[in-house]
Specification:
single chain, about 300 residues, mainly alpha, Cytochrome Bc1 Complex, Chain D, domain 2, Four Helix Bundle (Hemerythrin (Met), subunit A), two-stranded parallel ribbon, 12 helices, binds heme C
Length: about 300
């Protein structure tokens, strides 16, 4: 496939560094967790027979992308450290939902709840979690959680240090605004019914939207907001009028954290492949932008234009 930026370029490497660092910041800002878990996946929560049914489905529908030992090929690994850290402390119901609503990638929605649960049982067996007597069933999925991973990874040694390249308005226009708009667009276009059609005459931006379209684009927009919003708080950032961005103010940090939380809600809604659920979150998204803009962007002081009053 055509890549606009080869992965070996300095720009691409710098972007990877930024993504890693942003992950660590998100971890620090994360406000929510799953409370009140009753059982762990280590307690024999599925039966061997069920895992065997899951294995058959896996061999038929998943193996080409996730690999013979679940090591990951086109798709991510479904066993091992990186899988367990991605699912750290999350309830099994999230895994079953993920499978049922979004997999197999090209035929999302084709698996039943039972099949998706059997697949989860096979994933547990492959991860060396012991089998028990009873089958895993829909009623208990929300009460069983993956173990909490020990610690979140810190930025890789030698990663480029992170310094602002643009002012806050440029960050908003370049990153926040387009991604938020992809989410707002669900209000007027159901991602589930979108078909890609190549633009004539050729246009890279429009062409790009035929490569990653529909629900995948909505997933990515939500993830982009989660990962990029901590950059609002990068020390040394200035606003367009030259004033330092108010990165140390408690309320500015709260507005930033609130937008990250809405991003997470948008991702969860997108993963449910339910357009109405996403539309609902876009109301919160609108508020998360507006609450901060009211205070720090759209200044109302007498005698000063909005631009001059910004970031006070
Ligand atoms: C055509 C390739 C393809 C097929 C077939 C496929 N997947 Fe995936 N899978 C992916 C990709 C790519 C991702 C990462 C994107 C995402 O999370 O939506 C993924 C993500 C996942 C995840 C989330 C992993 C994580 O840690 O976030 C699970 C679980 C999963 N797949 C299970 C399955 C199961 C079970 C099947 C078979 C029913 C299956 N997949 C079939 C490509 C595939
Ligand atoms: C934590 C506070 C905060 C949040 C949250 C926030 N913004 Fe902003 N935004 C600002 C500030 C402050 C400016 C002005 C920056 C400057 O002048 O350099 C701005 C500027 C902008 C601009 C540029 C306006 C212009 O042309 O001058 C856009 C576009 C924008 N924001 C979009 C968004 C969207 C969309 C969201 C929500 C998804 C959002 N912002 C969330 C604080 C925030």
């Amino acid at each position: 496939m055509l890549r606009l930026i080869p992965l070996s370029s300095p720009a691409a490497r710098a972007t990877l560094g930024v993504a890693l660092y942003a992950c660590a910041l998100v971890g620090a800002l994360s406000l929510t967790g799953h409370a009140g878990q009753l059982r762990a996946v280590t307690e024999g929560v599925y039966s061997s027979e069920q895992a065997q049914r899951g294995q058959q489905l896996y061999q038929a529908q998943c193996v080409t992308c996730h690999g013979g030992t679940l090591e990951g090929v086109i798709g991510p690994p479904l066993a091992g450290d990186s899988f367990l850290s991605a699912w750290s402390a999350r309830p099994l119901v999230d895994l079953v939902d993920k499978i049922e609503k979004t997999m197999p990638l090209q035929q999302a929605g084709s698996l039943s709840r039972q099949q998706s649960t059997d697949l989860a049982a096979y994933i547990l067996q492959s991860g060396k979690f012991p089998a028990g007597q009873a089958e895993l069933n829909a009623a208990v999925l929300g009460q069983i959680a993956f173990p909490a991973a020990r610690s979140s990874p810190s930025p890789a040694a030698g990663a480029p240090s992170l310094a602002p390249a643009g002012n806050l308005a440029q960050l908003m226009r370049g990153v926040t605004f387009p991604n938020a708009n992809i989410l707002f667009n669900v209000q007027v276009k159901d991602p589930g019914t979108q078909k890609p059609s190549a633009p004539v005459p050729f246009d890279y931006v429009l062409w790009g939207s035929t490569v990653y379209y529909g629900w995948q684009a909505v997933d990515q927009a939500a993830l982009a907001l989660i990962e990029s919003t901590p950059l609002f708080l990068l020390p040394g950032r200035r606003c367009e009028n030259g004033r330092p961005a108010p990165v140390d103010r408690a309320d500015f940090k709260q507005y930033t954290a609130a937008l990250i939380e809405v991003g997470r809600a948008a991702y969860r809604a997108s993963q449910s492949r339910n357009a109405e659920a996403v539309v609902k979150v876009t109301e919160q998204l609108n508020d998360a932008c507006a609450n901060c803009h009211k205070v720090y962007r759209d200044g109302t002081q007498e005698g000063s234009s909005a631009g001059a009053a910004r970031c006070r």
